[in-house]
From TrEMBL:
Residues 1-194 form the Fanconi Anaemia group E protein C-terminal domain. One of its GO terms (cellular component) is Fanconi anaemia nuclear complex. It comes from the Eukaryota. One of its GO terms (biological process) is interstrand cross-link repair. It comes from Pomatorhinus ruficollis. Pfam families: FA_FANCE. This is FANCE protein. InterPro entries: FANCE, Fanconi_anaemia_gr_E_prot_C.
Length: 195
């Protein structure tokens, strides 16, 4: 709809107010999916700040409250949004999931799925750097495994940080099968760069 061009003309505070007025954070998931498909057609593209605000308003509450796998409508909306605005999406949503205490099994599965199927290579690197900024936990090992499964070429400094983190954390994960798989994956995928 032509009315959506207003999203490109809002200041950040106006956009937050508009999202609140439209109750986007609680709109039904089929409507969310439709709204995200409209966002894909929007020209010009949203600014980074606007996309980050929308990522937060549209998805943050929904993703953090997941206790079972996301519905197909929510998954379609997430995939659609990620396909165009993966960088602001990762900055907002992945960061929030990483900060969330507790197991967060559904959030972890969702992050793995997005890494494996939706994110652009530069966003996969962003997810990796975000994971390495927080203390490593059993919950995060599958996310790292998903990142390695993409077999992306990593910048040397990011690969060094990954290897250093794994070396430092090894004693804490001495009995973890997931950690052993992760180390094996690093040695397999990046064998020419890891000495």
């Amino acid at each position: 709809p032509p009315e959506l061009s207003i999203l490109n003309n809002c200041s950040p505070s106006q956009l937050e107010g508009l999202c609140s007025f439209l109750q986007l954070s609680t709109c039904p998931e089929p409507s969310l999916m439709c709204f995200c498909s409209w966002l894909l057609a929007l020209t010009p593209d949203l600014s980074y700040t606007s996309a980050a605000i929308l990522a937060e308003q549209l998805f943050l509450r929904r993703v953090l409250s997941l206790t079972q796998p996301p519905s197909r409508h929510l998954m379609a909306a997430l995939t659609s949004f990620c396909s165009k605005y993966s960088h602001p999406f990762c900055r907002v949503l992945v960061a929030a999931v990483l900060q969330e205490p507790g197991e967060g099994a559904e959030q972890t599965k969702l992050m793995c799925e997005l890494v494996e199927e939706c994110l652009e290579p530069h966003s996969v690197q962003l997810v990796l750097s975000q994971v390495l900024e927080v203390p490593l936990s059993e919950k995060l090992l599958p996310v790292l495994q998903a990142v390695l499964g993409r077999q992306e070429v990593l910048p040397p400094e990011l690969l060094d940080l990954l290897v250093l983190t794994l070396c430092q954390q090894a004693p804490a994960f001495a009995t973890s099968l997931n950690f052993a798989k992760l180390v094996t994956a690093v040695l397999t995928v990046y064998q020419s760069q890891v000495s």
